[in-house]
Amino acid sequence: MKNYFKKFSIMFVMALMFIGIGMIQNGSAVNAATVGQQLTSPDTGWKRIDAKKDGIISFNGTWFEGQNDSDWNGTVMESNTGNSSVKFNFYGTKIRFVTVKNIDGANNARITIDGNKVYSINLKDSLSFQILVSEVNNLSLGVHTVVVDFPNAVSTGYIYFDAIDIDENGKILPYGEAISLNQSIMDLRVGDSQQLTTTTTPAGAQVTWSSDNTRVATVNPTTGEVTGVSEGTCTITATTVNGLAATCTVTVTKKDDPQPTNPTGDANLFIELVDGQIKQYTVSQDEINKFTSWFENRDKDHSFTATYKFTKGTYKDYVVHDQIDWFEVR
């Protein structure tokens, strides 16, 4: 019995060790960085973008490049001019700002996302590098605009802009680039087509079209013409070369069955009177429709005349409603 409990205790301790090792290895979940900490490399699920990446990020006003081996890639952009700003778009759901803090850093810098989400950042502190100064999560998946500047264009020190972290599958895009469609909802019949058009900033940006269900509707990849294939709903997407996208929800319904049209040629109308006499008239379909309406409505509406007049050549022939036994059209 003692040996049993001894073995059980050893197994329990080993299990705790394995759990602890797993937690250490999964540092991105257990030891994820928090604002104010140094973050010299992106956490799992993030990727880092240098401030000067491909010239996509727009620096407005007066900026100069500082250099220090402790900065990300050895450089940082700096400005203490009140009208200076940083502008860019990104595709994703989250963003982090990683930069320098210094004794001459601004204590009133701000970050504005999508024009309405404003976050203050304080860069004033003892000199330190690659500090996580702000983090924004839980944005909707899509393109977001970002502006970093001084409120009211009044500087209280330096803005340092070193690097940003975004979703590992995210993308940095030029500021101000946009795409929209002339309609976000479209109704189509099977076999019918409609044209979607884009408005892009800058104007004339190259666009590629796609359908997420070509069994419901197809789209010309270059022109945006949508054609209904079968009943259902699908999404048509227009995408720029930089990854901006706009969508239209297309609902396709069955085409109405064509309704039979009334014949337009002449027909023979036979009317038998109660005395056995049969009258024959060769008349147009329109005349037959008028006679039928008169015959069916006369009993219900005495504003209709008691007789119906047919023109036969140069003379007129009248039939009395109460004297009609039956009639047929051949």
Automatic annotation (TrEMBL):
Superkingdom field: Bacteria
The BIG2 domain, residue ranges: 175-250
InterPro entries: Big_2 (IPR003343), CE2_N (IPR040794), Invasin/intimin_cell_adhesion (IPR008964)
Listed SMART domains: BID_2
Protein name per UniProt: Bacterial surface protein containing Ig-like domain
Species this chain originates from: Clostridium saccharoperbutylacetonicum N1-4(HMT)
